[in-house]
Amino acid sequence: FPIINSEQLGSYSCFFEEEKERRGTFNFRVPEVQRKNKPLITYVGDSVVLVCKCQHCAPLNWTWYSGNRSVQVPLDVHMNDKYAINGTNANETRLKIMQLSEDDKGSYWCHAMFQLGESQESVELVVISYLVPLKPFLGIVVEVILLVAIILFCEMHTQKKKMHTDD
User: Which intervals hold domain Ig-like (predicted)?
Assistant: First the structure.
């Protein structure tokens, strides 16, 4: 039972009628690409490596895309030194993005091409500046300075009242 084109992919069932009826169902489909479910969070100026794998299979070709939810733009590593694509095995691909900027945030898709079809998955990249984690810290510093100033003001005001009552 050879499958020679993508139109033959799908679910097949077979029945055996003996004393008791037995049924078997087989699903033939293009292998799924695996990726991490969580978005990757990194900082401006850093580098990041996005990884896609296909367990127990080797795609004919891997292609990476970037963009928003509706438009996918292929990444051309030959025209842009910002990207490097490699993989240690045929069943995985790695996209390295160097010198990240806030413009690099968004969705990246890895696209695996098989003889009978294709499969793809997306990875969400979040790029933040170093100021983002500093904002809560700076807020706390401002609160402490304000509290110290209020305490000093109250102390000075209390001292002035004592001086006036002593006269």
Answer: 31-126
